[in-house]
Amino acid sequence: MKNEIYKFLYNELTDYEKEGVSLSMEGSPASPTQIVEAHMMREDVSYMRDYVLDEDGDIKEVCFHHVKLQEKTAAVDTPQNNNKMSK
Fold first, then answer.
1. Contact (CB, 8 A) for 21 and 60
2. Distance CA 87, CA 30 (A)
3. In the chain, how many H helices and how many E strands?
4. Which of 13, 59, 63, 74 could form a disulfide with 32, with the two C-beta atoms 3.0–4.6 Å apart?
5. Measuring CA to CA, which residue among 17, 63, 9 is closest to residue 40?
6. Number of domains in the chain
């Protein structure tokens, strides 16, 4: 299952790169391979994406920043959890 996720991520990032979208990780330029390898090696860390848009609203850059999750306080951002958290 995880291999499928990594393949999907690699294909997604490769498509972005083909469209001229810059990719970076922790502030440094990164290739799709580097980003996927980092995801594979750091299973205790999640990566947050920041999308940078150009003046027309098109994606011009995707930045990945690692976020260390705390086991007991980590929440999945789902509509069900958002409803529970807003009460």
1. yes
2. 40
3. 3, 4
4. 13
5. 9
6. 1
pLDDT tens track for 5-34: 899 999 999 999 999 999 999 999 999 999
- Is residue 76 within 8 A of residue 69, CB to CB? The reply is no
Name the residue range of residue 6's domain. 2-85
Beta bridge partners of 25: 28, 64
What is the predicted pLDDT for the residue at 86? Answer: 40
Sheet holding 45-53, edge to edge: 28-29, 22-25, 59-68, 45-53
The CB density around residue 45, as the number of other CB atoms within 10 Å, is: 12
Answer whether 0.85 is exceeded by the pTM: no
